[in-house]
Write a structure and sequence with these properties.
The complex is a heterodimer. By secondary structure, chain A is an alpha/beta fold. In chain A, 30% of the residues lie in helices and 21% in strands. Chain B is globular, with a radius of gyration of 21 Å. The chains are: A alpha/beta, B alpha/beta.
């Protein structure tokens, strides 16, 4: 312990409220920031457009990605336009693109919740599932709070299909995974056109379509993290859309009771929110790092 | 080096084995692999540049394989900074923070070599190359009662040399008297004038004492989440693989063993981690009733431990210095807001400011 001649802590009974405002003043109306543009930014379109972008997106950092071209499908659902690039000269025909380097990013998997559990008549503590609708609502709400505007229309990603897998047993009880013939188109549950980001939520509804093995026994096991990771790997290979994958955290209920289900649901909601918050945090850091990296390359 | 205020003076050199580093990185994958910050700390980490880059290579491998994300920092006394290292650091995005106390009279007072010579001259020559490769490098200042009179001059010197980020900490463990506190107040006033002048001239810089106090009012309770989360958000690994809640507990002579909360072989002892965290939350009774409670740094458990021997007992010097700093920072904020200083508003009220600022620099 250090001996000092300043010896006592003296709490302050009161302190005046400073007259400069808190963040709420500008958060309530981000447009006010336009009244305070530093002179150095005025002649720098990049800085000015970034400022406008932040203000328009609720003053929250978001990744600066160039959107890919889009078109509307016949049924009115927007789909990602495949194999076209805008021609450089007006009137020129569309050309086949040259092979491109990886230009899209797939977010890491944000682990909150084991995503594992088993259902069936012999199971004493089954997991508690979130409904897909509820999960999408949670994800949307968190993203909205951070200033992102995602559409709920399903976006089908052309060229990506998944197959169901069933687990079957040999006569000597060795199990094998058998891929089924039927293919399922892959779609994002949420999509942000501006930044070309798709979001997939792994739920009990789509678990099997995405390749989660269905057990041919009285108990069905789920491993959402495994399927989320596999989905992530598929998306990393497509190079069309920036993407993130979330999964049902699947908290395990303590016993069969309504209270346990409620408690489990609360945990599941909270853990899903944590996944989304980590994603938002990652997105902001990623955008900053990319831009910093670009500057360095130039140097 | 043998810095006079070092909280962990060296007795003998202990390097971390690469196997311990591997285990540490593996451990990190179970904690927060999507955004892990790794800080290389010493002693002097640049004594083992090879280990630093081997660690980064290992992490890059994990990034490719598993989609994790790492960022790196190193804190150095600067003596071993050279062009090849700086080139590699820039390539690997290893952020360098340089310990420098300011002008020669301040720096050489405590930052001396084993043969008791000052290091200012050597370090000063490294600043230009450092800022060439790393324009956003941090300058880490420690202010002691003995060097207080050079505080404002030192900050101005560092800004003029080109540093944009100045992280200044008072050495609370020093021998502070009431006379020193009066001098501190005077220096803060001078620094506030400097801050005003530079901000109105739209010069970009970050000076931690004022920025943190301004943020503590502007961000309100949100600023609290940036304060110490003892052993929860950040851990430190000793060369022998022991896990501590903060780098300040990593002692060569093992005096802080009671704060060890596991090791890289067996992972974090969650019970101990929770116990230490709970203990760190029990702040002095006086602080709870203080009007500046939410704006004060008294939650830094490591600083408390260094100065009072208890992680939840607050140093009277810290208490006194915060009561000096906060009103000066508030008057500074009021002045700049009243003047409608654009840089002040963007820096403190626009969440996108760091990114926009990068873009502005990039376009230059």
């Amino acid at each position: 312990m250090i001996k000092q001649s300043v010896k006592k802590i003296k709490p302050l009974k009161s302190y005046r409220k400073p007259s400069y405002p808190g963040k709420e003043h500008f958060a309530a109306n981000p447009g006010r920031l336009l009244s305070y543009v530093p002179g150095a930014w005025v002649n720098k379109p990049l800085a000015l457009s970034a400022l406008l972008a932040f203000i328009c997106s609720g003053n929250i950092p978001a990744p600066a990605k160039e959107p890919l071209p889009f078109s509307a499908s016949e049924d009115g659902n927007r789909v990602i336009k495949e194999n076209t690039i805008a021609a450089a000269n007006t009137g020129a025909e569309e050309q086949k693109p040259a092979p491109r380097e990886q230009s899209t990013t797939v977010a890491p998997l944000f682990i909150h919740g084991t995503g594992a559990g088993t259902t069936g008549c012999v199971v004493m503590s089954p997991p508690v599932f979130l409904s897909e609708a509820e999960a999408i609502e949670i994800i949307l709400s968190e993203l909205k709070n951070a200033g992102f505007r995602f559409d709920t229309v399903d976006y089908i990603v052309p060229g990506i299909f998944t197959r169901e897998v069933s687990e079957e047993y040999d006569p000597d009880w060795k199990s094998r995974l058998i891929e089924q013939d039927a293919r399922h188109p892959f779609y994002f549950d949420l999509y942000d056109k501006q930044y070309n980001v798709g979001i997939k939520f792994i739920s009990r509804n789509n678990y099997f379509k995405l390749g989660g093995p269905s057990d041919s026994s009285t108990a069905q096991g789920y491993d959402f993290i495994d399927i989320a990771q596999k989905t992530r790997e598929i998306l990393m290979g497509q190079n069309k859309t920036n993407a993130a994958v979330f999964y049902d955290p699947l908290p395990t209920g303590k016993a069969f009771s309504l209270e346990a289900i409620d408690e489990g649901k609360d945990i599941g909601r909270r853990e899903l929110k944590e996944q989304v918050r980590d994603f938002i945090y990652w997105l902001e850091r990623e955008a900053a790092a990319k831009i910093a990296g670009t500057g360095k390359n130039k140097e | 080096m043998r810095c006079g205020y070092c909280y962990s003076p060296p007795d003998q050199r202990r390097d971390m084995a690469f196997s311990t580093i591997e285990k540490t990185i593996r451990l990190s994958t179970t904690l927060n692999p999507r955004n892990t910050g790794i800080i290389f700390f010493g002693g002097e980490p640049l004594l083992r540049k090879d280990l630093i880059f081997e660690t980064i290579a290992l992490c890059r491998d994990y990034e490719k394989k598993y989609g994790y994300s790492y960022h790196f920092k190193v804190t150095t006394n600067g003596l071993l900074l050279d062009e090849p290292f700086l080139r590699s650091a820039a390539r690997e995005r290893l952020h360098v923070a340089l310990s420098i106390d300011g002008v020669d009279l301040a720096h050489d007072r405590f930052r001396r070599t084993t043969d008791n010579s000052g290091t200012f001259k050597t370090i000063a020559e490294k600043i230009d190359p450092l800022l060439y490769y790393q324009p956003y490098a941090y300058a880490l200042m420690t202010i002691c009662p003995e060097t207080l009179e050079h505080y404002c001059k030192s900050v101005e010197y560092l800004i003029n040399k080109g540093f944009r980020y100045i992280i200044a900490s008072l050495n609370y463990a020093g021998r502070w008297t009431q006379v020193h506190l009066k001098r501190l107040k005077k220096e803060y006033h001078k620094l506030a004038e400097l801050y005003k002048r530079l901000t109105l001239a739209e010069k970009k810089f970050y000076f931690s004492p004022f920025e943190k106090k301004l943020a503590s009012h502007i961000q309100g309770k949100d600023a609290l989440c940036r304060q110490c989360h003892f052993g929860i958000k950040q851990i430190s690994i000793a060369p022998d693989g022991a896990i501590y809640p903060c780098v300040q507990f990593v002692k060569n002579n093992g005096t802080a063993r009671e704060f060890s909360m596991g090791n890289v072989d067996e992972g974090i002892d969650r019970g101990k981690q929770q116990q230490l965290f709970s203990l760190s939350r029990q702040v002095d009774e006086g602080c709870d009733s203080c009007a500046l409670n939410d704006r004060c740094e008294h939650r830094c458990s490591c600083m408390n431990w260094q100065t009072t021997g208890s992680i939840h007992s607050v140093s009277p010097v810290l208490c006194a210095s915060e009561k000096i700093l906060i009103p000066i920072a508030d008057r500074l904020g009021e002045f700049l807001y009243k003047k409608q200083a654009p840089l002040f508003v963007q820096k403190h009220y626009n969440a996108g400011y760091p990114l926009i600022s990068y873009m502005e620099d990039y376009q230059q």
